[in-house]
Amino acid sequence: MVNSLPAWLVPLPDAETMRAVDRWAIDEQGVASLELMERAGAGVARALERLAPDGPVTVVCGKGNNGGDGLVAARLLRESSRPVAVVCVAAPAELTGDARANLERLPGALPVRLDGTAWSGQRDGEETPKDRADLFGADASVIDALLGTGFEGEPRGAVAESIAAINAAGAPVVSVDVPSGVDASTGVVRGGAVCASLTVTFHAAKPGLWINPGKAHAGEVQVLDIGIPRGAPGGASIGLIDPSVLEQLPRRDARATKFTSGHVLIVGGSRGLTGAPQMAAKASMRAGAGYVTACVPASLQELIAGAGTPEMMTRGLPDDDGALTAQAVAGVLEASERGGSLALGPGLGRTDGAFACARAIAAQAAIAMVLDADGLNAHAGRLADLRARTAPSVLTPHAGELGRLLELDSSEIERERLRHVTTAAEQAQTVVLLKGDDTLIAAPDGMVAVSPGDSPALATAGTGDVLTGVIAAMLAQGLQAFAAAAAGVWLHAEAGREAARRLGAAEGVIATDVIAALPAARSRASRARMRDTRARPRSGSAQQRGRARGNG
Q1: pTM given for the model
Q2: Are residues 192 and 47 part of one domain?
Q3: Three-class secondary structure assignment of 500-547
Q4: What does the pLDDT look like over 514-552, one tens digit per residue?
Q5: Residue 262 belongs to a domain with what CATH number?
Q6: Could you give the strand order of the β-sheet that contains 368-371, starting from the edge strand earlier in sequence?
């Protein structure tokens, strides 16, 4: 059973919730559905005008409410003297309800087929485009009003053909509510899907606009208020991480000590992989941990200590040719008696001894844990073993690592990221964080936090170790696992942006630059939040006030 989302998550309602909102607004609140469609279409028309101020427009319509929104936009654009062609994937006679009403309001030429030929019932003397090239000319822009939030599955027939034509045109595209072909609830794309420049969505953004592969098709996302009253029923189990998540972090005061600021144990390192535990340790310190101890192979202790920051303590543990062995477990458990948190896996290596060590520590350590890298690989096919842990855990796999945990190919993970991360969280009964531009954080109860991403500077070696250290610091400072993971992800992404600003380009950023930017990123976020709070009307944020509907 999913509890209410925390205040630092912006709800992303799914298609079923949107249908309930529609019914409530229309049936119980007396809001005219035709008026909702008018406002939606007007918003789409304005967005198109901002995206492409001049030139012809092709509006490609389905036969449901999404197509009706497109017909409103087509009418308003024609009334403003824009040349507009309307393509319909079904005969106009098949349109019903509000979509039919807006077809009857449409001035000028009636909709045509995708090949430019007229549907039956064309008005005498009307001119229609001669072929598809006229509909998708070099200077044309497109409104995608084919499929709405209720769509699931794979587009077929004329709809699939229309999606392919829109993408082939290479034109600026505004999608209505969700890019056609994208599952609004999950982000899954089972066939073709429109690649939008801008998606105008109603009431609130949908999960599929922020979860890949759907996110990659959505372009810029604009949430449009079309006047649904407050108090709509239904909730959401998925939310977009807001910067206010950092308000969960404790602030040091005059009474603080290194002990009250939290102790982090980093367990890892092996021959050829000595940098990973160093970066995780440095990141923990920059993220607020009071002190950090790196538990590393004894044969590499001097090397790691000498190359690391002098504030980092090290502890040499039994190893075999530079890789930890099962004999190292006792030393880690002894060190963990101080409390704090454990980051298990950075640079651990894949020897049998290292894997046995990782499994034993994960099973026996009684402190909060981040499990990453080869600590995860040690549990390939053994995900359910982690259910027995008594202390909180956060798993931080990328798609390949999650695939190994679930015994699936990474391509399967990428196709249905939401489904697989929630499955893993349920199987392990712990928080699972699937890394990516759309990093997903799933709790065992089904709650999911989604990162806004947009931090390309993080696409470089070592930033995963940085994230591990940051989340470990959050856990050591007392945050609950789900909040620690979300706060760590948001701060990590902001540090990537801060590092890119300092260096002038995302392409020049390396992992240690991200570590150095962590304090400034936290400070920048706090200042921005204070400005936002002072400027916000008492009635609520723009996101909270923005109400609209989903289309079927």
Answers
A1: 0.92
A2: yes
A3: HHHHCCHHHCCHHHHHHHHHHHHHHHHHHHHHHHHHCCCCCCHHHHCC
A4: 999 999 999 877 666 555 654 444 333 333 323 233 333
A5: 3.40.1190.20
A6: 9-11, 238-241, 448-450, 440-442, 431-434, 393-395, 368-371, 341-344, 263-267, 291-297, 313-317
